Amino acid sequence: MTSAKLAETANALVADGKGILAADESSPTIKKRFDGIKIASTEENRRDYRDMLFSTPKANRYISGAILYDETIRQKAADGKTLVAKLKSAGIIPGIKVDMGAKPLAGHPDETVTEGLDGLRDRLKEYAKLGARFTKWRGVYRISDAAPSPACVIANAHALARYAALAQEAGLVPIVEPEVLMDGDHTIDVCEEVTEEVLRSVYAELANQNVWLEGTLLKPNMVISGKDCPEQAGVAEVAERTVRCLKRTVPAVVPGIVFLSGGQNDELATEHLDAMNKLGNLPWKLSFSYGRALQAAPLKAWSGKAKNLAAGQAAFLERAKANSEAATGRYA
Ligand code: 5MM
């Protein structure tokens, strides 16, 4: 696959008013989500839930791509069609999470490094055959008095860049996801400082590994107050600081930045994205790659019951439409 193909996929994922559905919850995470609606995390329930989202009529007006988990990319829906085939026929680009999760970083209590580089070249080839056109890898950074340590920042940036280079070699667009968690009582100042340091290190490593930025997307956290910080920054401040931080660190040739929601409530995640786009004068597209902020409402409406399928899809479409409007700064 040529560079042109990588750029074409990256640009299609951030086409005007479109964003990504992150549905790549690993088994422990989807179990947590299903616990919330009191249904068992069986293979069949996971399949039906994801089929419900992917088959939502007209979703492709707002959703460009969906990130899958290893189980999902191999799964067939109850009607016998693969979930990948259903996404493709709905006009949604299939993607795949290729990291093997954040694991304890030796010598650094409470910090993690994301693993999964061993054997990645072969896994990427297989995912491409299964129909994936883009990939995702998430590095996780916790804020505390001692964290993130330089070791955590360097190790995760290195892994993200090694992954991105391998993904491009396989003809798959890498979504580079460095997530500074909102857990903690830190101020928005600290979040901005840490996010800037993390993004600087990520782009330095991407350059070291010869990653072609035009064929990548960035999936960062927003610059936001810690969840338990007594002073919560408002929407305008989050938007201004996030855009300032990104302008300082993310090269203009990157086609798009697709935010994670990170545990923000879904309405706020939409308002923040909208406020950023309303600022205008941005070198890249700013859109969404939300998991919880797109799925919380449909998960609740569906609640594991086939009779609620239409209600689940309506709730999903509503969040997708709102975020699509926010991705062009037209959310009212
Ligand atoms: C959907 O959740 C993704 C997978 O997490 P686990 O591997 O821990 O199960 C996660 O990477 C997600 O893609 C991003 O964090 C964005 O999701 P949110 O919910 O933060 O928007």
From TrEMBL:
Which Pfam families does the entry mention?
A: Glycolytic (PF00274)
Q: Name one GO molecular function term.
A: fructose-bisphosphate aldolase activity
Catalyzed chemical reaction(s): beta-D-fructose 1,6-bisphosphate = D-glyceraldehyde 3-phosphate + dihydroxyacetone phosphate
One GO BP annotation of this record: glycolytic process
Q: Report the EC number(s), separated by commas if there are several.
A: 4.1.2.13
Q: What class of enzyme is it?
A: lyase
- Membrane as a keyword of this entry, yes or no, is no
Keywords for this protein:
Glycolysis, Lyase
Q: Which Gene3D superfamilies match?
A: Aldolase class I
**What pathway does the UniProt record associate with this protein?**
Carbohydrate degradation; glycolysis; D-glyceraldehyde 3-phosphate and glycerone phosphate from D-glucose: step 4/4
Which family is annotated?
Belongs to the class I fructose-bisphosphate aldolase family.
Name-wise, this protein is Fructose-bisphosphate aldolase
Which species?
Pelagibius litoralis
